[in-house]
Amino acid sequence: MRRSIAGWAFASLAVLCAGAGLAPPVRAQGTMPGVPLERRVKAAFLFKFLGYTDFPASAFPDAAAPLTIGVIGADDLAVELARVVAGRTVNNRAIEVRELRESDAGARVHLLFIGGSDPQRVARIVRQATGAMLVVTECENGLQVGSVINFRVVDERVRFDVALDAAERNGIKLSSRLLTVANRVQKGAQ
After folding, report:
1. What is the pTM of this model?
2. Residue 77 forms beta bridges with which residues?
3. Chain segment 29-67, per-residue pLDDT in tens
4. What separation in angstroms does the CA of 87 have from each of 45, 80, 92, 99, 100?
């Protein structure tokens, strides 16, 4: 029956089930042609992360400013994420998705997703990212190179690890509800 669940319903189910260890295997075939299931699940997680992240008021130029998600090195995920967030809000703010280049890493965004598995490249981009920002990666040792959240595939399921020190350094606060569903929570530099 997993194949019959469409788009957002499937992604929402994946996010809700992840905390209970029930996320669908990333190798399963989904219903959205052209976008791998792993990318769809990660896009749903990124949207959900916004609701569990407190950004300081200074992160927004005004009360009507949108939450901005920047995506580097994952065009397919950016397209899926734009589809997921279309017409949705978080804390009464619209959500905007921007595809960025590596040279745009210093752009003012609230969530920066850095795609790819090269830890040196990811570390270089993370160093350029400044301000109150939730940085999410998907590479080996992502937390060690400065990411706040790093996706991992564990037993063919998308999971994520969290670095609380990186969140604090970036001036954001993560909800304890998010931490309870994390695969691993790193409390200090390791």
Report:
1. 0.83
2. none
3. 334 467 899 999 999 999 999 999 999 999 999 999 999
4. 17, 14, 11, 18, 21
Q: Phi first, then psi: what are they for 151, rounded to 5°?
A: -75, 145
Task: Please give the Cα distance from 97 to 86 (Å, whole number).
Answer: 9
CA pair distance 76, 58, nearest whole angstrom = 31
Which residues contact residue 125 at a Cβ distance below 8 angstroms, ignoring those fewer than 6 apart?
A: 72, 102, 105, 114
Question: What are the residue ranges in the chain where pLDDT is below 70?
Answer: 1-33, 189-190
- What is the maximum alpha-carbon separation in the chain? 45
Cβ atoms within 10 Å of 100's Cβ, excluding its own? 20
- Give the pair of three-digit tokens for residue 96: 């905007």
- CA-based Rg of the chain, rounded to a whole angstrom? 15
147: left (phi over 0), alpha (psi -120 to 50) or beta: beta
Whose CA is closest to 184, among 151, 138, 137? 151
Q: Across the strands, what pairs with 137? A: 114, 150
Residues in the chain: 190
CA nearest to 99, candidates 115, 116, 88: 115
Q: Tokens representing 124?
A: 């270089």
* Burial track 130-157 (b if 16+ CB lie within 10 A, e otherwise): ebbbbbbbbbeebbbbbbbbbbbeeeeb
3-class DSSP assignment, residue 181:
helix
